[in-house]
Amino acid sequence: IKSKLLDPLKDPDENVGGFSDPDLDPISTTDTVIALCDAGILKNVATEPVTRPQRFSELVIVVDFSKHESDSKFNYSHIVQTADHAKAQGIKFPPIDFKKLLNSPPKELLVFESHDDDCPTVLWFTLCTKEFRNLEDYKPRSSVKPPDDKAFTDFSVFGSGTSYGTLNFSYTDYQFDQLRELMHFNVTSNIEVVKTHLAKAVEKKKRRLQKYLSKI
Description:
The protein has 216 residues and is α+β, with helices and mostly antiparallel strands. Helix content is 30%, strand content 8%. It has helices at residues 48-51, 77-88, 98-102, 130-133, 173-188, 191-213; strands at 2-3, 25-26, 59-63, 109-112, 121-125. It has a 3-stranded mixed beta sheet with strand order 3-5-4, with helices on one face. Strands 1-2 form a two-stranded antiparallel sheet. Strand 4 (109-112) and strand 5 (121-125) form a beta hairpin. The longest helix has 23 residues, at 191-213. Mean pLDDT is 86; it is low at 1-9 and 15-20. GO terms for molecular function: calcium ion binding; calcium-dependent phospholipase A2 activity; calcium-dependent phospholipid binding. This is PLA2c domain-containing protein. InterPro entries: Acyl_Trfase/lysoPLipase. It comes from Ciona savignyi (Pacific transparent sea squirt).
């Protein structure tokens, strides 16, 4: 087994090296333990695999499970890191008002778009519970018996006492269903926004193809 860092700006074929490539580092096939590096050390959300120019992406949908201080206070610095890293790599990312973003309250969906046809629009979904917790008589897609009298939507994702801490690796079926239903709601409640940007992406694709064909 060999490993190699891929250059997101290169054509995919240029990133494919043979086993004789001197830049490849061998990984043992006999060791019982192999140490791997979590990409989250650099930043929580890596969009480069789908935003690099060779992908010709018009719309990118991110479902972000990054940790925040509490349900009422989000730290969006990881989005800033994603945008900055893309820029450093020469990859286009929609413009962001960093100051405004960092002072923004939690939202279920953040939309980043550019007037540049070669820059994809990014729809960024979060684990914001603001709207979900205020739902009345919500009927979840869950057959698990509630462990207490609290409403299905009444739970915290972030902060002290949460069941979803970074170092918690096991969840009850009920806790899993709550998190799943939260993200399902956050996406489906914004489905019209998604449809609008899908339609825009189709038109953008047409313009890009026309521009490409005009050069042939």
